[in-house]
Design a protein that fits this description.
Distance between the termini: 75 Å
Number of helices: 28
Structural class: mainly alpha
Largest sheet: none
Shape: elongated
Number of strands: 0
């Protein structure tokens, strides 16, 4: 206890914030300087979390601590290279054609030269292989064919990963999977969800590496990316759970990654919690090193938008608007102006608030909220502010614009708990896992029921069964059933009025005989009172003698009160028995 107090006092005296918590990960390299090994391990965790700017800083400090460490220079080059999220389709190679800063192929090429010079005859063969393979990726100056060098690097890393001496080396397997997956970023499956040849190549090193180290941060990260666009039944949940339980609690993107699978199976509460933790971790790191947050700002905003969408799908409007407010606070004028690339990449996120409003029943007030001065920079927010109203029109009874994919309703679906409410379902109090399916566009969950109209788990998605699914048929089906029922009753009333000697009691009896609303609702809902209409008629006919005149009056018509009441009751009982006889159900045994 005294030691903890002393450390806290030292941190209070020190102007620098405490170092980030990046877990117990280590990759031993050839150095005798303890600080160099520590900084190298931190750089690896930041690189695995795709905070490459912070990774470059850690690797550079490791190289300063021990200039003879070849892997420290290798790390500087690796962190300046492309990855699964930032590649040629997103303009990476154009951005890397600079002499300094991040990313820079010039910095990477110089670092590889220093790494090759630091290698000696006594250097481990593993380090020689990694430096030699990475040298195939970079060139300086950058030419229009620079992206094609990824193929040679991927082939070299795949060949290394297939060697028997590297079969149990989780780091080599992770680097091989990263190199292969970067050949086809976000295009690992076809339209029929069949894996592409690149996905098949990447899966082999991932499986070998996870067999050696099931909790390796980069292997788990890449496995989630490999699975998220494929069939839900093949999601590798152990990798997602390993990231959820990671001890690198300040690596925000690693904490965020499980939500890529959570949101696809309807576990919106877990997706919201994962992104809340990721946002907190990223903001803590922003306080430590704000100067290295230009490119990584996109990941922070991605977490905030992900939180907003998970909240919208869960029907939690308050959390969705709070996440939209976080985006507006984070992407202020100073941040957008700090880098020429940021407005082009991030200003569309400022449309999150009107997007939330357009999906809510209160879209009128929110979508017309006055915009700040930064709206001049945010073209997307201006478009939503001026033209987002037609998307919110269905809540106000107007015609909506035709959309390629239906937007989710903001009303909470029956049977799905709101985020934060405890549930006694199969997933426990902390949130249920399961398969209330929602595709990437946020489509509504599929309803499934048991024979009693209650909720039941759907375990068709593999290991994570047990989500609560909506109760009852969809809202639109009930509306159609009510409209059909009203039409039947209106038609019966019209036919009765056309009779030459029709009286008011006759018309009311015709309307009631057209279908008792309560019984029809029970039949539509498919609940425990559901019975075919013929059996309902026979059950009432059999119950009439036992229940007396009140039941007969209810079936025969309430308009016969006074002098005509008895006749109405007798006629009602007679008609029900005749109806049961026509159906061949008898008078007293139809139930």
């Amino acid at each position: 206890c005294r030691l903890r107090l002393a450390l806290r006092y030292i941190h209070m005296l020190d102007d620098d914030p405490p170092p980030p918590t990046l877990g117990a990960y280590t990759q031993p390299v050839s150095t005798t300087v303890r600080e160099c090994q520590l900084l190298f391990d931190r750089g690896c965790v930041w690189a695995f979390s795709l905070h490459r700017e912070e990774a470059v800083a850690c690797f550079q400090r490791a190289a300063e601590a021990d200039s003879a460490c070849a892997m420290a220079h290798w790390g500087v080059a690796f962190a300046n290279g492309p990855d699964y999220n930032w590649n040629e389709s997103a303009g990476f190679f154009a951005a890397a054609a600079q002499h300094a800063g991040y990313p820079s192929f010039k910095v990477a090429a110089d670092a590889l030269e220093r790494a090759a010079a630091a290698l000696t005859d006594e250097s481990p063969q593993r380090e020689r292989d990694l430096v030699g393979a990475l040298a195939l990726l970079f060139e300086w100056p950058v030419t229009p064919t620079a992206a094609q060098r990824k193929v040679a690097y991927a082939d070299a890393m795949q060949a290394l990963a297939e060697r028997p001496n590297y079969a149990a080396d989780a780091d080599v397997q992770a680097l091989a999977a990263d190199a292969v997956m970067s050949l086809a970023p976000w295009a690992l499956y076809g339209a029929d969800q069949a894996p592409t040849p690149v996905a098949v190549r990447a899966k082999a090193p991932l499986e070998r590496g996870l067999a050696a180290d099931p909790a390796h941060p980069y292997l788990c990260h890449l496995r989630v990316h490999l699975d998220e666009m494929g069939p839900r039944a093949r999601f590798h949940w152990p990798s997602a759970e390993a990231l959820r339980r990671t001890d690198a609690t300040d690596a925000g993107h690693l904490l965020h990654m499980p939500s890529h699978l959570d949101i696809q199976v309807g576990d919106y509460s877990a997706a919201m919690q994962a992104n809340r933790e990721a946002i907190s971790a990223d903001l803590r790191q922003l306080a430590r090193a704000p100067q290295r947050f230009s490119i990584y700002s996109g990941y922070v905003v991605h977490n905030m938008e992900f939180l907003a969408w998970a909240a919208m799908l869960a029907g939690n409007k308050g959390a969705a608007l709070a996440a939209a407010g976080q985006i507006e606070t984070f992407l202020d004028e100073a941040r957008l102006a700090s880098n020429p690339m940021l407005p082009a990449f991030f200003e569309s996120y400022l449309a999150t608030r009107p997007m939330v409003a357009s999906l809510s029943a209160a879209g009128r007030s929110e979508s017309r909220r006055p915009q700040e001065a930064s709206v001049a920079r945010s073209g997307a927010r201006a478009v939503w502010a001026l033209g987002g109203a037609p998307l919110a029109a269905p809540a106000r009874g107007r015609a909506a614009l035709p959309l390629a994919h239906p937007l989710p309703s903001f009303r909470p679906r029956p049977g799905l708990r709101r985020e934060g409410r405890r549930s006694g379902g199969p997933g426990g109090a902390g949130g249920v896992r399961g398969s209330a399916h929602a595709d990437g566009a946020g489509h509504a969950a599929e309803a499934q029921h048991d024979g009693r109209g209650a909720l039941r788990p759907d375990r068709s998605c593999g290991a994570r069964g047990g989500a609560l699914l909506p109760r009852g048929p969809p809202r639109g089906e009930l509306g159609r059933a009510r409209r059909r029922r009203r039409k039947v009753r209106r038609d019966a009333v019209r036919r009765a009025r056309r009779l030459p000697d029709a009286s008011a009691p006759d018309v009311r009896r015709a309307a009631r005989r057209a279908g008792p609303p309560r019984a029809r609702r029970a039949a539509v809902r498919g609940g425990p009172r559901h019975l075919p209409q013929e059996r309902l008629v026979a059950r009432r006919a059999a119950a009439l003698p036992r229940r007396g005149g009140a039941r007969a009056a209810a079936e025969g018509g309430r308009g016969g009160a006074g002098r005509g009441g008895g006749g109405g009751r007798r006629r009602g009982a007679r008609e029900l028995r005749v109806r049961a006889g026509e159906l061949g159900l008898g008078e007293a045994t139809g139930a």
